[in-house]
Amino acid sequence: MSLTECSHCITKIVFPDSGICPACGKSKFELPGKSREEILVEQEKDELERHISYYKRRGPQILISGILITTAAIALIILTIISGVFIIWWYGGVLAGAALIGKGYSQIRNARELQFMYDKKFRK
Ligand SMILES: [Zn+2]
Asked: How far apart are alpha carbons 16 and 25 in whole angstroms?
């Protein structure tokens, strides 16, 4: 048993007797229509696209939850101060919300940076 590189997906694998690549499901008896270089470039492009769409989706979601949590915690702090009780837990909510805002913002920035890289590399 030795590792062979699948010519369709460039993954090093052990081919089963059927000759079907367990990683991409294509047969080793069929030749790919593209060169190894083209496949590698395509894979890099796909991976970048996946990361960009992940950050684009998650960044705003995290940012919005951060804003909601912070707003709710501040509202609760104001309410408890008005009603004369002091509950320290809501301050933790402000910190947690602020941390989420920071995280969401950095993911939005990641998406932007990756998009810039992607455009420079793949959009001519
Ligand atoms: Zn394969």
From this structure: 11
Tell me the C-alpha to C-alpha distance, in Å, between residue 83 and each of 9, 12, 69, 79, 104. Answer: 65, 66, 21, 6, 33
- Binned at pLDDT 50, 70 and 90, residue 72 comes out as very high
> Which pTM was predicted?
0.75
Query: What is the CA(38)–ligand 1 centre distance, in A?
Result: 15
Distance 12 CA to ligand 1 centre (A): 8
Give the number of other Cβ atoms within 10 Å of residue 118's Cβ: 16
Instruction: Output the six-digit token pair for 115.
Output: 């998009």
